[in-house]
Design a protein that fits this description.
By secondary structure, the protein is α+β, with helices and mostly antiparallel strands. Helices cover 44% and strands 14% of the residues. The chain has a five-stranded antiparallel beta sheet. A three-stranded mixed beta sheet has the order 1-7-8, with no helix packed on it. A hairpin with a 4-residue loop joins β5 (51-57) and β6 (62-68). The relative contact order is 0.14.
């Protein structure tokens, strides 16, 4: 990809959300999304669509920087508002966690008592509202797999088939250095591949023989599901399912149409 480097100061902005409503560590470390890289200084960097963000947990808030945005032609104020909206939507911040925790924990049953322990231990953990295409194909890959390997496979897809967003200059932005490799002085970030690009991949592409990034037996599922989703109308079909209020209807649609999606994978999606 083009070697565009980020440099110079980028302002931190506040999400105005307390740690009990959003905890980055509990949200990103639980195996629901794999596009966010944990970096130095307790930050997480990742893309939402074609926007690249870096997020940092503070004692009372989450703050963010926008390092790349698809809306570069807009004024800085309108772009900031759009970036904020993207983060609010991704973390579903319109939903207050406190009433949910109270309802799940209320009562004397074993499940209520267990939920009280879980809610206390994992405060601020949210379900991320991922792009539906990324969500579907990530969880097809997740079947009988582990978190590290899933992340490696999806990272390979981003680098090989996704749009290059930016190569960060970690000398200027020390918080962008991966937390497990402080020697790395630049990191390239990519958007998740589009459905159209995934549909161009062959089974051999997904097998990725000779690399640690092969999808194994899931390769044929990925090819068939990408082509089926295109037939159904692509991303808009999945967005239509998002509007469905009956979970069992969504599960039935996902299981019926997509190879590699059984009841458990459908529930994850």
């Amino acid at each position: 990809p083009p070697h565009h480097k980020m440099s110079g100061a980028v302002a931190w902005r506040s999400l105005k959300v307390t740690p009990t409503q959003l905890n980055l560590f509990n949200t990103f470390r639980n195996g629901q999304c794999w596009g966010w890289r944990e970096t130095q200084d307790g930050c997480f960097a990742g893309a939402i669509g074609r926007r690249l963000f870096i997020l940092r947990q503070t004692e009372s808030d989450v703050v963010y920087r926008t390092l790349a945005s698809s809306d570069s032609s807009s004024s800085s104020s309108s772009t900031a508002a759009t970036d904020l909206e993207a983060l609010h939507d991704f973390f579903q911040l319109e939903t207050d966690l406190a009433p949910l925790h109270a309802r799940w924990s209320r009562g004397n049953s074993k499940s209520n008592k267990n939920m009280a322990i879980i809610c206390q231990a994992l405060q601020g953990m949210r379900v991320a509202r991922q792009d539906p295409v990324e969500c579907l194909f990530s969880f097809i890959v997740s079947s009988n797999n582990n978190i590290t390997r899933i992340g490696n496979i999806l990272g390979h897809w981003r680098r090989s088939y996704g749009e290059h967003l930016v190569t960060t200059d970690a000398e200027s932005h020390t918080e962008l250095r991966p937390h497990n490799d402080p020697r790395e002085d630049s990191v390239a970030y990519f958007a998740f591949p589009t459905l159209e690009r995934l549909a161009q991949c062959t089974k051999e592409d997904f097998y990725a023989k000779g690399t640690p990034y092969g999808a194994g037996y899931r390769a044929s599922f990925l090819v068939n599901s990408a082509n089926k989703l295109l037939e159904l109308g692509g991303r808009e079909f999945l967005l239509g399912l998002r509007k469905e209020t009956a979970p069992l209807v969504v599960r039935e649609q996902l299981v019926t149409h997509f190879d590699g999606v059984g009841p458990k994978v459908a529930d994850c999606v």
